[in-house]
């Protein structure tokens, strides 16, 4: 013990450097974890954390027995799985095609363009979506009219709402997603391509037999981790695209917590909803990481 | 071109065309918004579609920038970005550096604590109640403090510091540096590229801040640009611009909205060329090792 104190005294500057970070993480990341206890209480802001009465599993029972639960689960999973189906393969295809471009200037230009939307906020992306797709003013509908087609209502159509979100995600993140695959492809030994060429492999066969196997591990790891993340659909994206006409397909756990908690002040119940989502997410991510570690040599942590 | 088969050439050409189309689809929405925002209001109203304006005009920009509320929100966002980024960088890099030093007692435990915050998020409400307890509702500090640092960046930065040789700091210690001065004089200058990458990531995060501002700031005079945009564009609330110069003719709401979007994108477009040099490295740093 004495030794420890003398070591800390000796390296005091080291601990001082870490102190603000430690305080920050304790206060802003761990105190809220303690705040979760109100999911098991009837929290009243007047009584505070200590005085509010315990109610056990009441809020969870209300969640699981209510009609909202299945709807929230369906919407959250549907949006996640559509992303998995349509969004996930695109960065892989895109990076393989980019890798085949011999003209460096062309390649760099396309890369710079497709990376850019990653840095735009969801507010901007939602605004762009409205400007492009709105029924009255949107340029896409104006083009439809120009070509003699019927106007189509993209924004208040609950049949296509999930696909609209997938489309936004693709536009925003597909290019950015290529970074990790391009890095993996860059690590491929070029002699493998030479050897394949000598064996008479055309470009498709080179991609199939050299490039794809080389990035197979990265693909599997990222896929497993995405599966671990299925409870996560971005709050901002869904919230900003939400409107009355699509409410049945657009309410997900996070938007529900916001509406019930922040807007209606039902703190305990909405904390319970959030806690359910986070716990399922935690389990999925931990399991996914274990699986990813089994497939590749290393997981993400 | 010797040795290239017909099949190869067909592949190359169709690949270039396909990627070109992807590029155009990506850039078109931004191009369209920029062009319409500079289109003369009369021309916009007369034509069905404007893909390239005949008459350029700054009318929408003049109108927007005469709105006190709009200019103020730009100021708020600038404040959040500059102050937030500076504090975030100092805290995250000093924390990560300390955690990378092997003589730090308990660093494995603290790293586990940091890692756990990535895996488990207590949810919106406990965070909201904490900010409320701290009396930070309606204070710009709430927006800065809740996203000041995060586990990913700490662990990525620590990975970068791990890659620097220990002997470097030891040599500095012999020359009379303590851990603090070694960090300032030796480590920080060496890590400038990584600081730049993370600084730009933080800056983008603060500039794009919407959700935290939405729930913590009720007072519309404190709205950052993203919240104002959301009100103006998506809720189409006409009052969000507040008082504007009464002598100016209001342009069509469409061109006005597009000008607002362009102004909110400009800072990103300005730092993008600098960002680009660093971000691939910034993303990869440490992620390979950890």
TrEMBL record, chain B:
InterPro entries: MetI-like, MetI-like_sf
Recorded topology in the membrane: Multi-pass membrane protein
Subcellular compartments: Cell membrane
Main location: membrane
Keywords from the named record: Cell membrane, Membrane, Transmembrane, Transmembrane helix, Transport
Membrane-crossing segments per the record: 12-34, 74-97, 109-129, 141-161, 182-207, 256-275
Signal peptide span: none
Domain ABC transmembrane type-1: 74-275
Source organism, top-level taxon: Bacteria
Family under the similarity heading: Belongs to the binding-protein-dependent transport system permease family.
Protein name (record): Carbohydrate ABC transporter permease
């Amino acid at each position: 013990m004495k030794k420890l104190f003398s070591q800390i005294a000796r390296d005091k500057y080291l601990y001082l450097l870490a102190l603000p970070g430690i305080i920050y993480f304790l206060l802003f990341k761990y105190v809220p974890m303690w705040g979760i206890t109100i999911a098991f209480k009837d929290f009243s802001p007047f009584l505070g954390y200590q005085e509010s009465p315990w109610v056990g599993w009441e809020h969870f029972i209300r969640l699981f027995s209510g009609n909202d639960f299945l709807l929230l689960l369906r919407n959250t999973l549907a949006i996640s799985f559509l992303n998995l189906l349509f969004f996930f393969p695109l960065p892989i295809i895109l990076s393989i095609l980019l890798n085949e471009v011999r003209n460096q200037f062309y390649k760099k230009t396309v890369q710079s363009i497709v990376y850019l939307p990653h840095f735009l906020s969801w507010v901007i992306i939602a605004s762009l979506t409205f400007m492009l797709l709105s029924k009255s003013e949107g340029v896409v509908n104006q083009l439809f009219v120009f070509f003699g087609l019927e106007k189509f209502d993209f924004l208040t159509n609950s049949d296509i709402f999930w696909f609209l979100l997938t489309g936004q995600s693709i536009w925003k993140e597909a290019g950015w997603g290529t970074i990790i695959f391009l890095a993996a492809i860059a690590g491929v030994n070029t002699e493998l391509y030479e050897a394949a060429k000598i064996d008479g492999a055309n470009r498709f066969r080179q991609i199939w037999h050299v490039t794809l196997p080389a990035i197979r591990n990265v693909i599997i790891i990222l896929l497993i981790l995405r599966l671990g993340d299925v409870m996560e659909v971005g709050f901002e994206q869904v919230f900003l695209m939400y409107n009355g006409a699509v409410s049945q397909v657009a309410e997900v756990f996070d938007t529900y917590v916001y509406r019930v908690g922040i807007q209606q002040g039902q703190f305990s119940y909405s904390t319970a909803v959030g806690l359910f989502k986070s716990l399922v997410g935690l389990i999925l991510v931990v399991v996914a990481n274990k699986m990813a570690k089994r497939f590749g040599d290393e997981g993400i942590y | 071109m010797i040795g290239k088969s017909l099949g190869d050439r067909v592949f190359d050409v169709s690949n270039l065309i396909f990627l070109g189309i992807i590029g155009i689809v990506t850039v078109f929405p931004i191009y369209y918004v920029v062009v319409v925002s500079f289109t003369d209001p009369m021309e916009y109203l007369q034509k069905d579609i404007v893909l390239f304006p005949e008459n350029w005009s700054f009318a929408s920009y003049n109108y927007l920038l005469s709105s006190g509320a709009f200019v103020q929100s730009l100021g708020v966002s600038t404040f959040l970005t500059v102050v937030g980024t500076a504090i975030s960088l100092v805290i995250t890099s000093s924390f990560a550096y300390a955690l990378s030093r092997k003589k730090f007692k308990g660093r494995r435990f603290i790293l586990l604590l940091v890692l756990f915050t990535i895996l488990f998020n207590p949810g919106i409400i406990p965070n909201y109640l904490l900010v409320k307890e701290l009396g930070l509702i309606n204070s710009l500090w709430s927006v800065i403090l809740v996203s000041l640092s995060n586990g990913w960046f700490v662990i990525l930065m620590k990975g970068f510091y791990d890659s620097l040789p220990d002997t470097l700091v030891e040599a500095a210690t012999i020359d009379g540096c303590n851990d603090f001065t070694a960090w300032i004089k030796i480590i920080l200058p060496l890590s400038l590229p990584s600081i730049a990458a993370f600084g730009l990531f933080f800056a983008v995060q603060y500039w794009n801040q919407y959700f935290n501002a939405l729930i913590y700031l009720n007072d519309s005079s404190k709205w950052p640009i993203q919240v104002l945009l959301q009100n103006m564009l998506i809720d189409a609330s006409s009052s969000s611009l507040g008082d504007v110069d009464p002598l100016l003719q209001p342009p069509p709401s469409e061109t006005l909205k597009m000008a607002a979007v362009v102004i909110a994108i400009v800072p990103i477009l300005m730092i993008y060329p600098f960002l680009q040099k660093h971000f691939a490295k910034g993303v990869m740093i440490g992620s390979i090792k950890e």
